[in-house]
């Protein structure tokens, strides 16, 4: 085993700060395309990139369908953290298949992100430029793949805006620049992307930065909401952390720093969960 690989092959004992170097016989073929040059420390080593862009989001974002575990949207890594084992395994195996397709000269893309059109419509609805029900009906008519989920998402958003976030009767202005941030775990070689959060100014008095969780399964638990808020706060540093919200649209629920105050261990929990996902992904690549 070469020096770089020795420094990178580790085992983490969950619930502790113990990180053990793996021997050659244990690490085996994980060296090839595996967790190399990523020595994992007990505390997250995080580098943050934050930017705002004016170009249409769909022009540069491939989203979940282009997902790699090492370059992944926040909502997708949260899904993997809490998904039942069969679902998590299925998602990871699909990711590996797309990686292998790309290695053979193909593309990871499968035609665009399923949720991007809906989220674009949500922003227009909030801004008062169009009606979400009408836009959803139009989407469903144009693409039968939207038939089941889009109406459910629409109902979730409308209830959140009216009953939970209480924006339905408020003058809301959507800031024209989309909010994006990258959370880089240098020691893991991973990037978690917080992309296309809604940046809204309500009554010209206060702002909200809202990031959506779309997945049918699993529901986002309270811990997951806190991890999402923590990631947003780390990556979107130009914004007031108290203005950030994570919404679980299908459950019609939201998480905020006021209702779900951080406990202080979110960075450690996030990294431990991420390590576990990467380890499972690497092992599945051996199949």
Description:
It is globular, with a radius of gyration of 20 Å. It has helices spanning 3-8, 24-27, 74-82, 85-103, 116-126, 132-142, 149-164, 222-235, 266-284, and strands at residues 10-12, 19-21, 46-53, 71-73, 172-174, 178-185, 190-202, 206-213, 244-248, 253-255. The longest helix is centred in the first third of the chain and has 19 residues, at 85-103. Strand 8, helix 8 (222-235) and strand 9 (244-248) form a beta-alpha-beta unit. By secondary structure, the protein is of the alpha+beta class. The strands form two sheets. Strands 3, 4, 5, 6, 7, 8, 9 and 10 form an eight-stranded mixed β-sheet that branches. A two-stranded antiparallel ribbon has the order 1-2. It has one domain (46-84, 100-282). Residues 1-44 and 50-66 have low confidence and may be disordered.
């Amino acid at each position: 085993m070469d020096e770089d690989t020795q420094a990178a092959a580790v085992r983490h004992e969950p619930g502790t700060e113990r990180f053990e170097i793996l021997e050659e016989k244990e690490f085996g073929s994980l060296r090839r395309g595996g967790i190399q040059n990523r020595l994992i420390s007990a505390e997250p080593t995080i580098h943050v990139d934050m930017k705002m862009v004016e170009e249409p989001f769909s022009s540069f974002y491939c989203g979940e369908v282009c997902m790699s575990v090492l370059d992944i949207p926040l909502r997708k890594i949260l899904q993997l953290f809490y998904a039942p084992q069969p679902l998590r395994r299925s998602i990871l195996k699909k990711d590996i298949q797309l990686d292998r397709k790309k290695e053979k000269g193909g593309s990871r893309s499968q035609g665009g992100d399923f949720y991007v059109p809906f989220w674009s419509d949500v922003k227009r609805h909030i801004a008062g430029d169009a009606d979400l029900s009408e836009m959803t009906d139009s989407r469903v008519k144009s693409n039968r793949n939207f038939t089941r989920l889009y109406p459910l998402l629409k109902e979730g958003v409308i209830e959140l805006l009216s009953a939970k976030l209480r924006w339905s009767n408020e003058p809301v202005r959507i800031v024209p620049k989309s909010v994006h941030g990258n959370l880089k775990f240098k020691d893991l070689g991973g990037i978690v992307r917080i992309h296309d959060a809604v940046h809204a100014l309500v009554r010209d008095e206060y702002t909200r930065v809202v990031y959506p969780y779309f997945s049918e399964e699993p529901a986002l638990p309270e811990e997951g909401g806190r991890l999402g808020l923590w990631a947003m706060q780390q990556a979107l540093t130009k914004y007031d952390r108290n203005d950030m919200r994570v919404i679980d649209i299908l459950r019609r629920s939201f998480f905020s720093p006021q209702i779900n105050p951080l406990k202080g261990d979110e960075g450690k929990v996030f990294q431990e969960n991420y390590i576990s996902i990467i380890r499972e992904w690497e092992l599945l690549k051996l199949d």
